[in-house]
Amino acid sequence: MSLTFAPATADALPLHIVDKDGFDGWLSSQSPAIQRWVAASDFKPVTGKTLLVPGTSGTPLLAVAGFGDATSRGRVRFPLAAAAAALPPGTYQLALPLPAGDIETETLGWLLSSYAFDKYKKKSGSAARLVCPPGIDASRVEAIAAAEALTRDLINTPAADMGPAALETAARDLAETHGAQVNVTRGDDLLHQNFPMIHAVGRAAAPNRAPRLIDLTWGNTGSSLTLVGKGVCFDTGGLNLKPGNSMALMKKDMGGAATVLGLAKMIMSLNLGLRLRVLIPAVENAVSGDAFRPGDVLTSRKGLTVEINNTDAEGRLVLADALALASEENPDLLISMATLTGAARVAVGPDLAPYFTDDPVFSSVLEQAAAHVADPVWRLPFWEPYERMIEPDIADLDNAPSGGMAGSITAALFLRRFASDQRYAHFDIYGWNPTAAPARPKGGVGMGARAILAALPKLLPL
């Protein structure tokens, strides 16, 4: 797959993008032969509809692609990518400005339409390549596409090949590419260095899948940004074992880690002027004689005690120790990302990235950026009255309040206890696209990362 723009060549086929409002005017400006061909082909300018128009020699003279109307485009994340998927292989060059939409986002969608996860089976995405339109920073768009591909590849890879050690390797490879540093704390060293909850969750796994905390740092000047990503490489549920159907997609339970690594790749590739830290507690929540148990009380890095009422609510435990470490450094902005609760998926579905923050400036800037780059987010509340739901009788905190109410909110409140007084936001993402769409094949997908990237210049001095 090629997630890059095609070089400009003389044989690039002109591509005319026309929407419903502009179609008649465009058609009337064409030659009679083109008008007859379009009419005979019964072409309509609907999103994703394409047509090759032959010249006198029979070879294609130009291509035309529909761009629909505002309503139909609002239902497709990347309308231009719908055209890319429908066009035959070849190189295309936009002959007209887009009728609407952000050209950088639309060209990103075109590049992403080439993505396919082909590690285990030969397959490919769109083979239609685009010459970078004038005024677009090709290297920026290509860097974002490559970072999204990294996130997708990590999530799509089965747990047998993407355990804690493999996730560490992915972080080290990324660090080597961009001149970052990585420090990793593994196994029983987690206890010695005071990461008891990461150790407790991961200690039941096989020795070659031992728990670890991956700590990547990059940059020496500027504002400090710390990203914490949930790296549960497979989640059986522990002793509160999941039913088989609920375990089927648990290879994606490291989607938070995959997403922050993708965001880190964007930041480093674009050489943003900040100090970046990425913390990934990487574990497998397995079942063995050494598994942590319902009813156990764990003492966290921060000193808060946590009663375990469900071993399947393990993600917040490993994140808590990592957030406590992050808070000790007092970064200018702290963000956690995790495939944390089914409640978030039920509330907003797979398309939206729900997030929590107490900072109205962060929320306002993020939502404007998200709309601009077609990476939708939705704010959920840190609802203070629910604090009592995470406070059991025998410990400071409860990892799984009974009753099943407000599961995403109580999980976010739990995490906020470990973020201290930081400028903090938590994303409870799904990380999986269940239905194929233009530039978004079925499978792992980044959520919220591009919105955060677009928001950073207004959130932190760069």
TrEMBL record:
GO molecular-function terms, A-Z: manganese ion binding; metalloaminopeptidase activity
GO biological process: proteolysis
Protein name from the UniProt record: Leucyl aminopeptidase
Entry keyword set: Aminopeptidase, Hydrolase, Manganese, Protease
UniProt feature coiled coil, ranges: none
InterPro entries listed in its UniProt record: Leucine_aapep/pepB, Macro_dom-like, Peptidase_M17_C, Peptidase_M17_N_1
Lineage: Bacteria, Pseudomonadati, Pseudomonadota, Alphaproteobacteria, Rhodobacterales
UniProt keyword annotation of Glycosyltransferase present: no
Domain Cytosol aminopeptidase: 310-317
Family to which the UniProt record says this protein belongs: Belongs to the peptidase M17 family.
SUPFAM superfamilies, A to Z: Macro domain-like, Zn-dependent exopeptidases
PANTHER family: LEUCINE AMINOPEPTIDASE-RELATED, PEPTIDASE B
Gene Ontology cellular component terms for the protein in this record: cytoplasm
Organism superkingdom: Bacteria
Origin species: Shimia aestuarii
